[in-house]
Amino acid sequence: MDPVRQVFSVDLLERYAAKGRGVITCMAAGNDVIMLGTSKGWVIRHDFGVGDSYDFDLSVGRPGEQSIHRVFVDPGGSHCIATVVGSGGADTYYTHAKWSKPRVLSKLKGLLVDAVAWNKQQITEASTREVILGTDNGQLHEIAVDEKDKKEKYIKFLFELTELPEAFMGLQMETASIANGTRYYVMAVTPTRLYSFTGIGSLDSVFASYVDRAVHFMELPGEIPNSELHFFIKQRRAVHFAWLSGAGIYHGGLNFGAQHSSPNGDENFVENKALLDYSKFCEGDEAVKPSSLAVSEFHFLLLIRNRVKVVNRISEQIIEELQFDQTAESASKGIIGLCSDASAGLFYAYDQNSIFQVSVNDEGRDMWKIHLDLKEYAAALANCRDPLQRDQVYLVQAEAAFSSKDFLRAASFYAKINYVLSFEEITLKFISIGEQDALRTFLLRKLDNLAKDDKCQITMISMWATELYLDKINRLLLEEDNASENHSSEYQSIIKEFRAFLSDCKDVLDEATTMKLLESYGRVDELVFFASLKEHYEIVVHHYIQQGEAKKALQVLQKPNVPIELQYKFAPDLIMLDAYETVESWMTTKNLNPRKLIPAMMRYSSEPHAKNETHEVIKYLEYSVHRLLNEDPGVHNLLLSLYAKQEDESALLRFLQCKFGKGRTNGPEFFYDPKYALRLCLKEKRMRACVHIYSMMSMHDEAVALALQVDPELAMAEADKVEDDEDLRKKLWLMVAKHVVKQEKGTKRENIRKAIAFLKETDGLLKIEDILPFFPDFALIDDFKEAICSSLEDYNEQIEKLKQDMNDATHGADNIRNDISALAQRYAIIDRDEECGVCRRKILTVGGDYRMARGYVSVGPMAPFYVFPCGHAFHAQCLIAHVTRCTNQIQAEYILDLQKQLTLLGNEPRKELNGGLIEGEPISSMTPADKIRSQLDDAIASECPFCGDLMIREISLPFILPEEADVVSSWEIKPHNPGSQKSLSLAI
Questions:
Q1: Are strands 103-104 and 113-117 parallel, antiparallel or unpaired?
Q2: Could you report the per-residue pLDDT of 769-778, keeping only the tens digit for each?
Q3: Number of domains in the chain
Q4: Selection from 157, 228, 155 nearest residue 190 by Cα
Q5: 923 in the same domain as 866
Q6: In a domain, 213, yes or no
Q7: Cα 261 from chain centre
Q8: Is residue 553 domain-resident?
Q9: Does the keyword Zinc-finger apply (predicted)?
Q10: Which long-range contacts does 535-543 make (Cβ < 8 Å, 24+ apart)?
Q11: What is the DSSP string of 865-888?
């Protein structure tokens, strides 16, 4: 506690004394505001925050002497209730910090208020909300006042003591918001009893419930001048209470969340109750009772005569006595009482003329020592301020546990010490007494308390703990009774604990040293476990394979972070160990390349298998080919070789006939090597498969020849597959026919009948004359009479058909000849205003219409021109220039070359008749110039340049050709700034 200092004196405000306001009789404080009641009926308010002081006269209009009995201020310093006692009875006044004068609460007329409980959680500056008033006749009332109303809103009767009517000397109220409303906690004291009330709802409903049930109270008989009740509030919540009673100071903690209900349904929210006996404050042989009490977080301030004794609430020892610097007159009358300002954390003592302030400064600095002396270790740690203080608490606990031979508990506390004892001192303690288990516990706890930056120390302690674990495991194994149930359970427990330790410390343990330790102690299982933790999966898988546990090895390989290469490395061993599980694992593993598994599959396939046993390699290869759509030739070749070795050829044929590349625009339909497949099938004597492969390789001769050795029906089917080569198809059918004729063993007539029947199966491809050479020379023609006649009839029909086709061709040739003659007489009419499609100048320079027998026209001195059936007309030179510019380079050079040749030959006139070529003139009689002109006409005038393919092709050409790069700059958008305005102009 800080020294006592005087903060207010009536002597300093002589104007109060001059007006005869009397002496101080009572006091209340809140939020740096004090309210003083005087013996003349005046209330003095002083605000330390702003230094203002003013007074209220409560005796106006009242006869006789008036004295302020009690004054109460809310924790915020806004609301004040004062009780005035005089010859006319008792009156209760209310005033607000903003008011200039108080208002009498008329509804409380005649009631002497001795205690007030404010609703600290809900009170505001503008409203008191619900307030509980305790009177001298043992009644409790509820009242509420709003600053704007300037009078009480209501007054409700709540409760009355009937069993032992006594005055309520102290009241405290707390509230808590819960899901179904507001819970109220109310504590009240009389001179001999402490009552507690609690309930949910409103205040009147809470107290109404006590009509049908007993009130919870604590009775402490004894006489005391003034019974007081105080709550200590920290961070807006009550923490503990103290009751100044005749028997002592009854105090305890407050738990407003407590759910411990008494049998009658009342909830007791008081815990850790204790009674501080007044005998501890003996002066001589007589116990002295305090006249007033104030409560801080850890101490009681007791007013005993003219001194304040500060008593620690935990140790119940007097730690300090405070003296007051009083005048002689004040000292003779003594200190009246104590008052606390909970919101400001200040305490006041007052006599008739002065007010003294007691400040609390770091009162909890030594609380850890007090709790430690009382062996309240948890509380001591909670009050420690620095690591050194905590170390001292841990040291006391560790030494106590070590002395009682509870070494494991002692190790846990020693591990928390960082300063008062060194690491070496603690470890030597356990080593000297041979407590390996305690030493291990100490190391483990020390690891938990070390910072991550202490990497070197963490690694060293982890390795030491590892060796201690291994030593413990070996000692359990070497004990004579290790077969008993207890040792077995202890052994299993330490193994489990050791593995958990390895899991937690895998990142800090030195890998090489740890594995050497595990190997040297023969802990193979733990070595594998640690290797798995460090992701050395190769060691783990190798161990499981050695143990014959293929399923466990496969489970390791299926982990997401296991390299895929380990699958290929251990595949040969695993498939020989458990083929079914291995193949199932392969089929569930993603991104597995079947090609890299071929060595393992070939090793498995080389071993003998039972006839009805499922071939696991074939199963996996079928999965890869059909489900994964694998295209690797090696995979397909291996599957084909396994099919070829099976007695049943059906699977092989289905595989060969399957088109794996079906639906693709590019790429093969199969991925195996057909030459390898053919060699393999020939070796294994799978003839039907060989026939299919020959056919697939377009070796139809070989396919049919081999098929004839197996089944003639198969040969016929193969011969019928050839559709686009009629000669080859006929050749193949002749091979079949020859084989069929030679294979018949019946009589001659039967051979002939079967041969003729075979001809029908060829669908007219073979005639009787084709198969006659296959019969013996001595065969009679009568046997073939019907077949020969049928063949002759077919030939006759073909001859007639050919005659008809010839007649049709002759008639068509006559029609074409007539059309050619008509074309020689064609013409076009050109208007005299017709313009050239290129230069837009008129085609004709004289009046009249002109006729054209062929596309090229020359009339007198006019320039040559061309007219097309579509109506477009062009000057000859314009058309040549346009076509040369628009066509490709090769065609343009060709046109220019023809034009050059024509120039060199001169302007030799062409032979014409009526403006055209001489009708019926053979091409051989044409002059060289006419031939060149004809070639030039074909090059430039075969179609109209505006309507033909030339115009269509120009659509896909760019606006600017590559050779016109210098034109690009003319298309650029350039900024243009005429004056102050900004614009863009397009330069084209």
A1: unpaired
A2: 555 555 554 4
A3: 4
A4: 228
A5: yes
A6: no
A7: 46
A8: yes
A9: yes
A10: 535/561, 535/562, 537/562, 537/563, 537/566, 538/566, 538/569, 541/566, 541/570, 542/570
A11: EEE-TTS-EEEHHHHHHHHHHHS-
